[in-house]
Specification:
About 45% of the residues lie in helices and about 20% in strands. By secondary structure, the chain is of the alpha+beta class. The radius of gyration is 31 Å and the shape is elongated. Belongs to the FHY3/FAR1 family.
């Protein structure tokens, strides 16, 4: 032990020296780190850890990352408990003065994007009830691709336990595109009414043609009131999932039920045949008194395929795009985030999606399409369509080789069916009517896809 004292001229001198240690020596690096003096995190590493925590990286993974990035081969230069203490302090500091930080971030977003919009609903006590925001890119995308959107809520994303929902659609690259986000205090009808009406207001009054949600009754009532011209559709995957839960004893154990049920829901396009098929299904498996099947049958116009054949759905039959976006959001946002961190990380998530879109734009402009069929329409499609849409078109063009076409009326109406050698099920053995109008400028098929 050494004791140092100051001199009058501000120097130092050793006042006491004890050669014997008062404790056993630490021999290994692992032991040395257990001393407080040997377990210090330098400022640069602290900033690195702070950014990792804000991006939802767990303390355990941070410990491994720091150890791998040290480069000395000595492992992490501080204790795991020291890291946990730092993470806890960062969390406390992040919560402090949350609303001031949130306002500062929103002001910064507004200064960078003149078309950025945020709306806040407060209750009688001036407490935040609902927050909805969108940026200029969201508004542009909605103007082009907002005819069909999905809406689904998610939980455990913020400190205040407010459900969060995204308005999601699909763009020309067949990618999910975000139109806006909303934080709700609850999932009651008034909250959804405010969210939907405010969203449409920010989007210059444009109502979506079709909106897909889960089976939430509050959403259904709010859409009916605020979006009367919008066709509301239930997520088909939710119906199938609910069927597995409610009638699992038949769904999993009765041979053939799952196949027949899925074929009827996924493949049938005729309302009349759907009605007959449902009656046969219920009778065959003796489910006439099942309350779940009775309820979803009464609501069949909300989810069954035949009742949406003339409704634009942009290839979507479920809220999977919203659910995927919510899952991606949770990868960016730590659980129970304060509001300012939530909004900042949401913006980072949006930038990540924008980067994916820019990549597709680059591919479309720099790479030529591969012509596979050698027919004139393929050349036009290669010029008009994006890469993703051209690939979908190319597959449809290839599959058209299995169709047999015959004239129904001279010059304008044709009957189309699958060639006998390509029919693999009763759903393939159908005949469709294709009508050509305006001298070939408009073509319509009663299959509902074209």
């Amino acid at each position: 032990m050494i004791r140092l004292l100051r001199t009058e001229d501000h120097g130092w001198f050793v006042s006491r020296l004890v050669n014997e240690h008062t404790h056993p020596l630490s021999e290994s690096c692992g032991e040395k780190k257990q001393w407080n003096s040997h377990s210090v995190i330098d400022p640069l590493t602290k900033d690195f850890i702070k950014n990792l925590r804000y991006n939802n990286v767990s303390a355990g993974k941070i410990f491994s990352i720091v150890g791998a990035g040290d480069g000395s081969g000595m492992g992490v230069p501080f204790r795991r408990q020291t890291l946990k203490s730092l993470c806890a302090r960062l969390a406390r500091e992040s919560i402090d003065d949350d609303m001031t930080k949130t306002i500062r971030i929103l002001q910064d977003l507004s200064s960078k994007d003149p078309n950025f919009s945020v709306r806040v609903e407060v209750d009688e006590g001036s407490r935040v009830k609902t927050v909805l925001w969108c940026n200029g890119k969201n508004k542009i995308d909605y103007a082009h691709f907002g005819d069909v959107l999905t809406f689904d809520t998610t939980y455990r994303t913020n400190l205040y336990n407010m459900p969060f929902a995204l308005f999601v659609g699909v763009n020309e690259h067949y990618q999910s595109t975000i139109f806006g986000g909303v934080l709700l205090r609850d999932e009651k009808i008034p909250s959804f009414e405010w969210a939907f009406s405010t969203f449409v207001e920010l989007m210059n009054g444009k109502h979506p043609v079709t909106m897909l949600t889960d089976q939430c009754q509050s959403m259904e009532a709010a859409i009916r009131k605020t979006l009367p011209m919008t066709r509301h559709r239930w997520c088909k995957c939710h119906v199938l999932r609910a069927a597995k839960e409610k009638i699992g004893h038949v769904y999993s154990k009765r041979y053939g039920f799952k196949r027949d049920f899925h074929d009827l829901i996924i493949n049938e396009t005729s309302a009349e045949k759907f009605e007959h098929g449902w009656t046969d299904l219920v009778a065959t498996y003796e489910l006439g008194d099942n309350s779940f099947l009775e309820r979803i049958y009464n609501k069949r116009s909300m989810w069954a395929k035949p009742y949406f054949m003339e409704t634009l759905c942009a290839g979507m039959t479920s809220t999977q795009r919203s659910e995927s976006a919510n899952h991606l959001l949770k990868m960016f946002i730590p659980r129970s985030s304060p509001m300012h961190l939530f909004i900042r990380q949401y913006n980072n998530m949006f930038e990540s999606r924008l980067s994916d879109e820019q990549q597709q734009i680059h591919v479309c402009r720099q790479k030529r399409r591969l012509l596979k069929q050698g027919v004139p329409i393929e050349l036009d499609a290669a010029v008009v369509y994006t890469k993703a849409m051209y690939e979908r078109f190319s597959l449809e063009l290839f599959n058209s080789g299995s169709l047999v076409v015959s004239k129904a009326l001279p010059g304008s109406v044709f009957k189309v069916r699958t060639a006998d050698s390509y029919v693999t099920s009763e759903y393939d053995d159908k005949e469709y009517t294709v009508q050509i109008e305006e001298g070939g400028r408009f073509v319509q098929c009663d299959c509902g896809f074209f």
